[in-house]
From TrEMBL:
<dbReference type="InterPro" id="IPR018485">
    <property type="entry name" value="FGGY_C"/>
</dbReference>
<dbReference type="Pfam" id="PF00370">
    <property type="entry name" value="FGGY_N"/>
</dbReference>
<keyword id="KW-0808">Transferase</keyword>
<feature type="domain" description="Carbohydrate kinase FGGY N-terminal">
    <location>
        <begin position="10"/>
        <end position="181"/>
    </location>
</feature>
<dbReference type="InterPro" id="IPR043129">
    <property type="entry name" value="ATPase_NBD"/>
</dbReference>
<feature type="domain" description="Carbohydrate kinase FGGY C-terminal">
    <location>
        <begin position="286"/>
        <end position="489"/>
    </location>
</feature>
<dbReference type="Pfam" id="PF02782">
    <property type="entry name" value="FGGY_C"/>
</dbReference>
<dbReference type="GO" id="GO:0005737">
    <property type="term" value="C:cytoplasm"/>
</dbReference>
<dbReference type="InterPro" id="IPR006003">
    <property type="entry name" value="FGGY_RbtK-like"/>
</dbReference>
<dbReference type="GO" id="GO:0019321">
    <property type="term" value="P:pentose metabolic process"/>
</dbReference>
<dbReference type="GO" id="GO:0019150">
    <property type="term" value="F:D-ribulokinase activity"/>
</dbReference>
<comment type="similarity">
    <text>Belongs to the FGGY kinase family.</text>
</comment>
<dbReference type="InterPro" id="IPR018484">
    <property type="entry name" value="FGGY_N"/>
</dbReference>
<protein>
    <recommendedName>
        <fullName>FGGY carbohydrate kinase domain-containing protein</fullName>
    </recommendedName>
</protein>
<keyword id="KW-0418">Kinase</keyword>
<dbReference type="InterPro" id="IPR000577">
    <property type="entry name" value="Carb_kinase_FGGY"/>
</dbReference>
Amino acid sequence: MQSTELTGLCLSVDVGTASVRAALVTRAGLLQSTAEEPISIWEPQADHYVQSSAEIWEKCCSVVKRVTQHVERSQVRGIGFDATCSLVVLDQSFQPVPVSQDGKQRNVVMWMDHRAEEQAACITNAGHRVLNRVGGVMSPEMQPPKLLWLKENLKERCWNKAAHFFDLPDFLSWKATGSLTRSLCTLVCKWTYCPPEGWDASFWTSIGLEDLLENNSSKIGSVTCPPGSPLGDGLTREAAADLGLDPGTAVGASLIDAHAGGLGVIGADVKGFLLPCEDQPITTRMAMICGTSTCHMAISEQALFVPGVWGPCLSAMVPGMWLNEGGQSATGRLVSPISSSSEPCILPFTGGNIYSYLNSHLSSMVNDGSAVDLLGSSLHVWPDFHGNRSPLADPTLKGMMIGLSLSQTLDDLALLYLATVQALALGTLHILDAMREAGHDIRTLFLCGGLSKNALFVQIHANATGLPVVLPDQMEAVLIGAAVLGACASQDYSSIQEAMEKMAKVGKVVQPDRELQSFYERKYKVFLKLFAHQREYQAIMNQR
């Protein structure tokens, strides 16, 4: 008879910005198999990005069937879902309600959709007390401004027909179990829910959305639970048939994708790695999930209020702990060499990883053995091309580049790429400084996500912040984090904390180059002046 260690598997499903992934994961946190399929993104007009919940579920079913085709259904003990914090709209019969003027059956307002900037600004200016838990500023990437936009702009076509508003992670767990219970992760982080009190009725009334409070707030969620809690009776018969699994298979309350990445790295056992966070509480660690955007996750035992940083959010990632979440928007796109230049040069590049190629080229530009970082001494970037999420919380800020020439050589493109990576690292330092000032004691960075596979990106983050960077043993940390939810729902582990420690593992440690400390101190001063100058220029041009 095989042991539970060998036969007991968790299934993780991760819905990212442009694809759906699934993985089979052992109780020890080892990936057994993975599958991925793309999902559609439509842009019906500028800054409007929409998807289809029907297509997303269809792709979830497809990837799950692919990763489970060679195992017995009974081996899958638990399932965890994570997804982007996008807004799903359904009617009374749980059918899609269009969220665009064109009326097409695309019922998901994506996380990166910035149509509600005006509504977000109005909510911020009203100054309600709920703003204290979102860094003092309402982001257009949160759900209240998006809901207000739908009411103001699509009242007949969408708002009056809508009966259920889900965060995408909660939609997936509902689709799997039939349970309308919402995860505290989504509601606390993106909807202003505050346990144990719950919804603040005065907030929704003050912004003209008091109709969401009807029927015990059934449209936005009246029952909540911490991430990883078992939902309903597990998979319904319909969902089990869709996924090719057994009815009743345990399903854990879901997470936002970035938070799943946090679970997949931040709890790893670091004994023997000589890190400053060894023998220290988990609160000395910050998880960075580096994908389409970058999220900076720090947890604390007490509520810490950080201006311009979301939170504190109770039980939003680790039950019983407070979460602060900083972030940088569109980092993945910004680092792309093709996006970094309006007229990119033709690369003498025939395949493989373009980042590895540029990293190698930068190394070849250094003839005296000095650090590659120093090549960025005369080229500076302010990276907020999609606004600033943290710690300034200003979606109107724009990107800046100082030190460009007319030259369009490969060297120039490589230097611009380097300066952009350095700017993102300095943006992380900016967020760290805000968190430290508010009381966080962060000593080690734990990175995961696509950009964490870029060696230069990782090393520069260590150098610019002066902190060691830990990379996970299993690079797909988001999939590990979602599997943690399934392991808790199936009761293979008694708590999120236990599951994190057992399933997340250290792969590599990258130490900062202390000889570059002075260089980055100076470059950080330039970085902060870029922001100050942008505000100054705006003020001059606003004069009448």
